[in-house]
Amino acid sequence: MSQASLAPVPRVPTARPVSMTDIARHAGVSQKTVSRVVNDEPHVTAPVRERVLAAIAELGFRPNAAARALVTHRSRRIGMITVGTTLHGPASILDGVEHASRAAGYFLSVVRTLENSAEELQQAVDQLVSQGVEGIVLSEPIDFGHPELHIPDGICVLSFDDPHESHRPGELVVGADETGGARGATEHLLALGHPTVWHIGGTSTWGATRRRIDGWRAALADADAAEPPVLTGDWTPRSGYEAMSAILHRPDVTAVFAANDQMAIGAMHAIRTAGLRVPQDISVVGFDDDPVSAFLTTPLTTVRQDFAELTRLAMHRLIRTLEGHPPAERHRSIPAQLVTRSTTALANPARRSVLPARKPTHPPR
């Protein structure tokens, strides 16, 4: 073998990651000043901060999260527990939390659960704690009794829940006034002359189901109207169709309030399949203001929860707390707004003597 073949192969130089030292040299400041800018600390003048930020942008500096955590003793990581569903409400909250976390420079770890057992939820908490999260967002829309969860002291907890219910001491709670929204929807139908309002409820274990039933029931009691039995649904259009089909043989059914828009859409399909009209024969109101609701053949009257504002306000409070500036008011309720469209009308006096033209068929598969 020749000596040439034994010669070492020259190494191809690789690009070295840009460091804080490089930024300091480029901006003409100390490394400590660069660290203050990167960690958004005070005691840096505006011109110097702008010069450092310009150097960061020009050189393409990316802070090392692990190294920064060692220096600052902060992970800048938020954990979130949410139900594994594509329903409009939970999905909108998750989207808002992701956006707010990213905009504030925090990492977000999401754990999706399938059940509401205490064991599964505690496992989700433990998984997030093991990742060193600074805060935990509880967006589980099921009654899971989170005051009983063991969450270590020092971890800030934000819950998207009813601020009027029991919560852990010091917990941040932001939620829409679902009870008030449901009451407003029911009062709207009663004011149109309907003698009573039937209700299609959601999954029985969800807190949202109970709160919307409470609002519906309160409106009926205040108007001294008869309270029909709650019809059971599971948030899907099929369950709304089946619940509505079960009462269409009753000519005294003139108004129905569904606990979400998807069940309201199913109920409307059942009404039309039976040869009746919405709203001329039966008025329908939903809840949540699903994006599709305004674009139905008959646009749906519904109750809007402003999920964008809800998550913006909640995450602002959480991040301010993590930065050392907790709000004086830890519990906040956001009003829910009735959106009147085309599925509600004055009660039809003739409806009481009009039976469905034909029996409802099975829901489409």
Write up what this structure looks like:
By secondary structure, the chain is an alpha/beta fold. Helix content is 37%, strand content 14%. The protein contains eleven helices and twelve strands. The protein has helices spanning 20-27, 31-38, 46-59, 65-72, 88-103, 118-130, 178-191, 207-222, 237-245, 261-273, 307-322; strands spanning 77-83, 107-113, 135-138, 156-160, 172-176, 198-201, 231-232, 255-258, 283-285, 302-304, 331-334, 337-339. Strands 2-1-3-4-5-11 form a six-stranded parallel β-sheet, with helices on both faces. It has a four-stranded parallel β-sheet with strand order 7-6-8-9, with helices on both faces. It starts with 19 loop residues before the first helix and ends in a 26-residue tail after the last strand.
